Amino acid sequence: xxxxxxxxxxxxxxxxxxxxxxxxxxxxxxxxxxxxxxxxxxxxxxxxxxxxxxxxxxxxxxxxxxxxxxxxxxxxxxxxxxxxxxxxxxxxxxxxxxxxxxxxxxxxxxxxxxxxxxxxxxxxxxxxxxxxxxxxxxxxxxxxxxxxxxxxxxxxxxxxxxxxxxxxxxxxxxxxxxxxxxxxxxxxxxxxxxxxxxxxxxxxxxxxxxxxxxxxxxxxxxxxxxxxxxxxxxxxxxxx
Length: 240
Fold this sequence. Notes:
Blueprint: E1 3-6, H1 16-28, E2 35-39, H2 54-68, E3 72-76, H3 86-92, E4 95-97, E5 100-105, E6 108-113, H4 123-132, H5 135-142, H6 146-166, H7 176-186, E7 190-193, E8 200-206, E9 209-215, E10 223-228, E11 234-239
Parallel strand pairs: 1-2, 2-3, 3-4, 6-7, 7-9
Antiparallel strand pairs: 1-10, 5-6, 8-9, 10-11
Helix pairs in contact: 1-2
């Protein structure tokens, strides 16, 4: 059986074309896989599980159908949808993973991450991340009305876009030292992550071992997934 990995779809109501690609991917590729791992930023923004818009519910129903058909679905929160909680988990029948999760992929210890914590030179973002992951800050945010939360999220997205435009690309990329540190922590031979929107496969030497870092592609005008075969082969597939 095969295993699939995706990240950075940034689904939102104003881009129904990307949502349609996601539905197509679930129906045509993911349904034949043993497992699907969604490594963060499935949504462009998630302001709480109580935001039961028809768009959000359509995504949840699609994931539930996939899980109900026998594909194990795993979800890791990203920097856009870190507020996904227990209600989403119940409704979608997916399993929620922590920020760092080790699996055995064809006999290889493989570390899964969203990838934002690997960007250790982006101090402004890391400060923002620390604040927004605080339990009490999140609870205060969730006490606000949906309308107020949407406004706060809109402003946060604008600040994020401004930050991206004004920050050097290398600052927002991963640092090799952090990659090696976290892989050594878990004794992982492979790391799979998203976040940076720089799809590639990087092989490097560390402590006498050949390690691999695979960066998943974002879904801009087409979909992309990493397909891992049971014989160890890996390939990127496109969803159009």
